[in-house]
Amino acid sequence: MNGIVISDIDDTLIKADPGDIGIWKYKDGKETRLSTEEFAKDPDKDDPTVKFDYREFNEPKKVRDSIINGTPLLKNLKIIDRYLNKGYDFTFLTARGAEDIIKDVMADFMKYRDETGHLQQIGAKFKDTLSYAVNDEKYCEIFDGIKDFDRKAKVIKMIAEMYDDCIFLDDDTRNLVAVKRLNLPNVKVIRAMKESTSEHHNERGHHVDQNVSSRAHKLHQIQ
Ligand SMILES: [Mg+2]
Asked: Which pLDDT score is estimated for 213?
């Protein structure tokens, strides 16, 4: 039997600092930079006369920093560990763009905790060729007019043909529903938990090490 964990990134593997990647807004001749949180609540989001620019989502350094500086969501990482320790492969499925940058970041930084409690490099368990950032510009034609949740569902359907058991981990209800609707017997849908409390950091150890002051270092312990 072969299995794979297909995991979302934001609010699933990590909670990114909302200011790390900004969205530029152009309204009434004025330019403002919004955090991802501000953008999510922006009242002009559906106003066609207001322009939004997502260029920071393609800036390698910003993309990289937004992931490696993010707060690891340990509850979800623990779920992933459990499957990886059973021999499952790992892949990411995100609504972000900049797929190649994210693949590099994951290959460099993603770790898991083995059964003896030691952190291991993800190594060959990471299947980068099956990892997708569905808003990457290279997909703009094939996914034209398709909503993010349906893009994700299409990817899952394709991967499900290659594995006996697929675990889809995501925090967004729309994604979970879209994948459930595929009704594939070999796909299990798991809702990711958004919050990671300091308690969980403690439980997991390492994270609260006093010497760990650099946020980048924290990600080395992401799992
Ligand atoms: Mg998410």
From this structure: 33
Q: Tell me how far the alpha carbon of residue 131 lies from the centroid of ligand 1, in angstroms.
A: 15
Query: Tokens 């892949």 appear where?
Result: 91
Å from CA of 4 to ligand 1 middle: 18
- Out of 8-22, 155-169, 185-199, give the one with best mean pLDDT: 155-169
Q: How far is the CA of 9 from the centre of ligand 1 (A)?
A: 6
CB 190 within 8 A of CB 168: yes
pLDDT above 60 (res 216): no
| pLDDT greater than 80 at residue 167 | yes
Q: How far is the CA of 28 from the centre of ligand 1 (A)?
A: 32
Q: Grade residue 179 by pLDDT with cuts at 50, 70 and 90.
A: very high
Q: How far is CA 57 from CA 63, 149, 183, 208, in A?
A: 6, 19, 33, 30
DSSP state string for 208-219? T-TT---HHHHH
Cα(111) to centroid of ligand 1, in Å? Answer: 19
Query: Residues lining ligand 1 (ion), CB within 5 A?
Result: 8, 10-11, 171
CA atoms of 56 and 33, how far apart (whole Å): 10
Domain boundaries, the chain: 3-15+69-220, 23-59
Local structure of 86: helix, strand or coil: coil
How far does residue 30's CA lie from ligand 1's centre (Å)?
Answer: 30
- Ligand 1 centre distance from Cα of residue 213 (Å): 26
Q: What is the pLDDT of residue 45?
A: 83
CATH topology of domain 3-15+69-220: Rossmann fold (3.40.50)
